[in-house]
Records
---
Amino acid sequence: MDKVIFSGVQPSGNLHIGNYVGALKQWVTMQEGRDAIFCIVDLHTITVPQDPKVLREKILEMTALYIACGIDPEKAHIFVQSENPNHTQLGWILNTITSFGQLERMTQFKEKSQKYGENVGLFDYPVLMAADILLYQTDEVPVGEDQKQHLELARDLAKKFNKQFGEVFKLPIPVIGKEAARVMSLQAPTSKMSKSDVNQLGTVYLLDSEDQIREKIKKAVTDSQTHISKDRGSEGLSNLLTIYSAFKNQTLTDSYNQLEGKSYGEFKTLLADLVVLDLSQIKKKYEEIRGNEEYLNQILDGGRDFAIEKSNETMQKVLDALGLGRTA
Ligand code: TYM
């Protein structure tokens, strides 16, 4: 049987190059020869305040973007989390084997609750994420580095459940890219590039115009040196080299070897050319399909039916293991 890969993105804000090189680019490679399932995790998104109209709008936008980035709907399944109630049901069940301490340790909860205020959903977020993954007997989960701690929790919960109630869940393995697992803000390179950064210059969005991309890269923070040298330079510079390497599909070491001696100005132009080329193709494809809502809805309908059917198998095992409901 093919290996199952599962991953997801929140339909909040706009997708940026961190999401692209940290997650989506890996999804595209990994969809080959595997049973690939990609979710639009709208239930996770409402753990911080959202405008309902915008949230709905984002579902089709995200679907079109997945495809524009190279997800092939003939090979992979794309669906919306809230359309498969098994996610919340398993999330509830996993709550009963999760300790407060496990969730209190989560760095994303600490960061987000400081920024947006606390709610129980935000605290419980990683348990729902564990349910997302475990429902599909997932082998591999391609994500950026910021999700590593959540993945560890998913494994721990799967182990605990299996030990207590019998072997039901497969233990998922996180697949975190070596080079671009954590893309930093172009303006504050000690913080992660993020959809909700107030400084718009720090984030390059997939649908930015050529001028915006060039401006953001030109204004990216570097350091007081003027030329690239192998001693790797500041966080700002190494972040730009990380992005360069990811877009060029080569290692960071190869990029340093190739670019050593170039002025920062020359390098930024090369980087901007590379990013503009890739993103313009994504944008072109996006614009071709975004208006075809019938096509996008068909993909999501098929994805939903597949997701429900596949996850029902695991859900029934869970209910049986726990003695919930009546005998089938
Ligand atoms: P989200 O929507 O914040 O991000 C989507 C994916 O993009 C990666 N990512 C980054 N990678 C590199 N550099 C960055 N600056 C950067 N910012 C984001 C994230 O690691 C992620 O892979 N909790 C998840 C969504 C989720 C999920 C799941 C993922 C819910 N259930 C089950 C996998 C499996 C999240 O908030 O991703």
Note: The chain has 13 helices and five strands.
---
Amino acid sequence: MSKKSPVSRSGRFTGGPAAEVAQFTESISFDWRLWRHDIQGSIAHATMLQKIGVLTKAELNAITKGMNQIGREITAGQFKWKPELEDVHMNIEAELTKRVPAGAKLHTARSRNDQVALDVRLWLRDELTALLGEIAGLQRALVSLGEKNVDVIIPGYTHLQRAQPVYFAHHLLAYVEMLERDCERLWDCHSRVNVCPLGSGAIAGSTLPLKRELVAKLLGFVNAAGQVQLTQNSMDGVSDRDFMIEFCSTAALLAIHFSRLSEDVILWASAEFNFIKIADAYTTGSSLMPQKKNPDIAELARGKTSRVVGNLMSLLTLLKGLPMTYNRDLQEDKERLFDTADTVRATTRLLAAMLRNTRVNQPACAAAASDPALLATDLADYLVRKGMAFRPAHHVVGAVVALAEKTGKLLNQLTLAELQSVDKTFGRDALGVFNLKTAMSKRNITGAPGTKEVAKQLARWRAQLS
Ligand code: ARG
């Protein structure tokens, strides 16, 4: 940094850092993207400085105008970021001060320590709102795919073995539920992101009579009840990164949900399952095998989960053992945070687009769901209705399954006589258990994949998401 730089590190240093030090310590290459929030925060801070008499009205106007002009230049790609000015905060302030002499007063009672905490909170708050909107879009895509295929029944799996029949929509709605919990967690995280640290200074606040409430109000740090949200301890204010870790942890779980959904999609798109066809535009080919159509979006969604989980680990490790308060280590937080936010947002968007361009292969689903073994538990329930205790009923049906296997028949091909050879409790109506439609109409307790219940859940989500 040149000694003449308007935001130089003052008289303490006789020269700028060595070139390799500047290169090692700079953050402008990644924190430039905080510029909008940095400007927003500076204007609010300046507005408050005018109220307490540090700036005149004319100076505030000049600063505001200068900042807005810089903002326009950044948007237009005309602003020249200087690595020798380290970070976004110094770059913008230096440029402002070059143009507006009062810029030299802007940093009164402010440190980059509370400034960067503020900028990241503002940035993450916007990011959270955008992400929540995109997750709702993905939930809508899942609901729509379910609605388009309301009658489709597939085997539900445990241990990846066919278990019991479920509506395809029921399977999709399981993901809608998971995503809803992610949204709740993100909103909860939002409440702790939405707290204003400005006024914490470098570590110990300020001797000047700052109006912290005013700044917080101007920047929208207000809770649902309309109360201004301020950090209550200056040391915590500059060194707290819990809100980032909360976000990255919530995002990691979100990414894990994406990964599980992706795994189902990948299985369903395989020739072995053949339950779905993803539109060509949302798949890729192989450079060698001409017949291939690969579910790359789902595979990458699954793969990118690793970096989101890794980012969380990085942040946890970054904070571990840091003494109070601000330490330069904390500069390492941003790339992890940005990468997490970028990754989960892009993945949300792409998964939604892929699902909107996926169609269900109804005959293949019907063929898989027609396996009568899926209704073996229903046959045990039949015996329970006839008065048998469940444990013996389970045993009897097990014997029926063994008999079917021995005779090379499907369960529903056994005769009444054969059933009765295992247990006399079976009546004429026993084989009626294998009517899939009837079976699905019977699963109507809350949360079950029954015909009425799934329709109810689809309608509930449709209403909630619109
Ligand atoms: N670029 C720094 C960061 O990201 C800003 C704060 C620097 N503060 C300091 N005292 N050097 O954390």
Note: The CA atoms of residues 380 and 397 lie 6 Å apart.
